[in-house]
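Subject: for your reference before the review

Hello V.,

The reviewers asked for a structural picture of the protein, and I figured it would be easier to keep everything in one thread rather than splitting it across files. Below is the amino acid sequence we used in the manuscript, unchanged from the supplementary table.
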Amino acid sequence: MDIEGLGEAIIEQLVGLELVRNIADLYGLRQHRDRLMGLERWGEKSTDNLLSAIEASKERPFHRVLFALGIRHVGAGVARVLAEHFPSIGALQKATPAALQQVTTIGPAIAESITRFFAEPHNREVLRDLARAGVRLHSEARTGGALAGKVLVLTGTLEHHTREEAKALIEAAGGTVASGISAKVHYLVVGADAGSKLAKAQALGIRTLTEAELLAMLR
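And here is what came back from the structure prediction:
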């Protein structure tokens, strides 16, 4: 959640004092402001800075919150894909394993992990507390982009961009970057020394793009 000042040592201290038992408790720390200021090496300024940072984290995008929940197998990329297909935590909670597996990059193991997470009463209670605290548990309306709804895979070395730079450009245009070739992929972006993904994409009839063609689509 990118909360400035909330490092591991502080978390251990808050847990040790039983001020925090789960992640939702972070958003109730303001009621313990006086107690926090009385702790060793804590003062009014450091306490207020931390509380302000926690308050600001309520506006993190839904996909960041999903990642932060710590659902097994749900990394940053998978969380972003889930947020694009399920507009709220309620919609994701109601999704069946079969529905989850219709989403690009979501296989049986990830689908089962998500289902198990929401089946746990403790997790549902934490989510209710997060909602009451005002943490963003839904996606903002999207206006689309040049690659809205498209799934792309990158292979080989691009001439002008790193993999991370290309991924950021694609996601900014509404696209999704997958790690492997499947029938759900729309485009394969091919750089120098492309590997086996190229042959697999050609066998499936997936359109290939050079870096220049990708940039032209983005423009």
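For the response letter, the relevant points are probably these. The longest helix spans residues 44-56. Residues 17 and 171 are 41 Å apart (CA to CA).

Happy to draft the paragraph if you're swamped.

O.
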